[in-house]
Every structure is written in structure tokens, then in C-alpha cells.
């Protein structure tokens, strides 16, 4: 990894205790018998897979779930011992089976031919999951196919069906009946599995949006993802997003003002910060930043690696000054809640927008 001294001075500070707190609160809600699979897709929703896995397990999560096999292997190599569910989306081949055996990963299969592939290469027990398609029209198996697939798995000596899950999806304005119909189809398929005399797997239906909308759908397990990172006010997961001023200069353009990137008549002094589109510029901040404890408006849109600030009202601003996009500076603050409202986004949307070149650190709220 590149020495932090040589990286651009952009820094995202993450409160890992926020996730620990959210998982612990969810445990209190669902009770001791419902398993919590902490979903850590997209590099832990932009907050880092490994630190978020540790935070979730510290809060009482029972298992982890994600789509990237390499990330799952990295969790095992880092000492994570909890069950890991691999969501559908990666090819089921000899490499997938070998990884499942070596690192105790639960593979999701989407067809009988995929089950046959696992059976062909498995030399040790492999646990499988089946994802049911109950309405979102995304990736998944139709409920009518579940029994045949479960029987095919049961017929193989090294295979077992560990989990049947679904990912209910609905618009915020959709009535509860839209969610309930997806739940009815999911439970109905599992009831038919039981009637067929097949072993009952862990039933996992409630994900983030469902947990945020309704209770009573927890069954055997839940797999919250964004739900774990959604707190923007009580215990915000992003503590700060900071950089520095790389240049401060007067406005000197004296031609074609109608084609200037901002209103030349209103701005006499600009600053430049090294956060641009590649770093999430335009998607990870509010309308202002903090410089010397005062608000400075962002001018226009970002370029690839820079953004401009209006420093007309901050005469003492200098190159090298700290710039806060999210967080506190002196007595001033641009909160995560303000940032989310400005972007119409969730905290995880903000984190996923912040590019990988931005240095991430993780802190406890008690540190």
C-alpha cells in the first residue's frame, strides 16, 4: 500500500462504533434466536469490508454476507471465523468450489446445472444457498423451481442446502401490500419445501428496506446492509471528510465573463482543493465547506481532481489550511445529516461516492 505521506491530503474518518451500535440495537429488536447476516457489499458500502465486518461482529452479528469472493477470502485470511454467505452474481466453477471448501463459504446457486458443477468438483462438504425471485425481477430462482433444486442438492453426498433467501424490493411510496405479497410468495415456497419432506434451511427474507418498513418478517435470519450504515444524526458513521487548500488566489479573468465557470462579479478570491470527480466531488458534500471555522461556498462543478471554493469572505485563508467537507471545525459544523440532505443520499451513498484514493481511517467514538 502507498505510504500515506505520499498520498493526496484527502481523508475520510469513519466511526466504526456506529455500526457496532446499530447491530446491537437490531439484536435487541429481533431477539436472540434470529441470525443477523451483516451484508457488506461494495467494500462494506464504501466504509471498508474488513473494519465493518469487525464492527458488525462486535455488535453481535452472527454471520457476514457479500458478493465478492476475493473479499470473502480476505476476511477469512484476516481471522474472521463467522459463516460467510456469498450472494449470487459470480460464476459457479471449479475455482468457486475450491474456495468454498478451503474457506468455508456458502455458495449461492441459481440452477440445477450449477448444482451439478458444485457436485462435480466438491471433494469435501459444501453448503449452498438458493435465492428466490419473488417480485423484484432481478437475479434469483422462481419459487416453483425450489423443490427440484433442493432435491438435487439433497441427492449429492457432499452438498447441503443451508439457506434460502430473497431480496424484497419496493419503492418508498409503495403500499405495505407490495412487501407483504413478496413475503407471502417466499414463505409459500418454503412451506411447500417442508410439505415435500425436505430439510428446512435457514429462511432469510428481511433486508434493509424491509426492516425499515415492517416487523414480523424476520423468520430465521435477516441480512441488513445499508440499514447498518444509515444513521446520520444520532451516531453518524462518517466523522469527517477533510482536505487542505492547495492554492489561494485572486480572480484575474478579464475576458468573456459570460463563459466563466462562475459569476465573476460576485467572486474576488478563490481557493482550490484536491478533491475532484474521481474522489467523489459533486456527490459527497454539501454546498459549502469550512475554512478557518467559516463557511465557504463551492464554486461550480468539480474537475477531475480539483474543486474551487469562494474565499471572498475569508481574507485570512491561506494555502495549507484545513478544509472540512463533513465534520466540525472550531465552533462550526457541516453535519453528515446536512450532507445527506443536500445530496438526497444516505450515508452509504456518500461513502460509496468517495473514491478509493481518499485515505480512510477508522476510529472509536471513545478514542
Summarize it.
This protein has helices at residues 16-30, 41-45, 49-58, 69-77, 94-103, 112-121, 146-154, 176-195, 208-213, 336-343, 347-353, and strands at residues 11-15, 35-39, 63-66, 84-86, 105-109, 126-132, 159-166, 202-206, 221-222, 238-244, 247-250, 269-273, 288-291, 294-299, 307-310, 322-329, 332-334, 359-363.
How would you describe the overall organization of this protein?
This protein is an alpha/beta fold and 367 residues long. It contains eleven helices and 18 strands. The relative contact order is 0.15. The mean pLDDT is 95.
Keywords:
ten-stranded mixed beta sheet, 2 domains, 367 residues, TIM Barrel, Lyase, Ornithine Decarboxylase, Chain A, domain 1, eight-stranded parallel beta barrel, alpha/beta
CATH architecture of the largest domain: Alpha-Beta Barrel
Strand content: 15-25%
Q: What's the tally of helices?
A: 11
Give a quick account of the main beta sheet: strands, pairing sense, barrel closure.
10 strands, mixed
As for the number of domains, it is: 2
CATH superfamily of the largest domain: Alanine racemase
Question: What is the CA-based Rg, rounded?
Answer: 24 Å
- Distance from first to last alpha carbon: 25 Å
Helix content: 25-40%
String of helices and strands: EHEHHEHEHEHEHEHEHEEEEEEEEEHHE
User: What is the CATH topology of the largest domain?
Assistant: TIM Barrel
Shape: elongated
- The class by helix and strand makeup works out as alpha/beta
Poorly predicted ranges = none
Reading off the top of the CATH hierarchy, the class of the largest domain is best stated as: Alpha Beta
Query: What is the mean predicted local confidence, pLDDT?
Result: 95
Please tally the β strands and state the result: 18
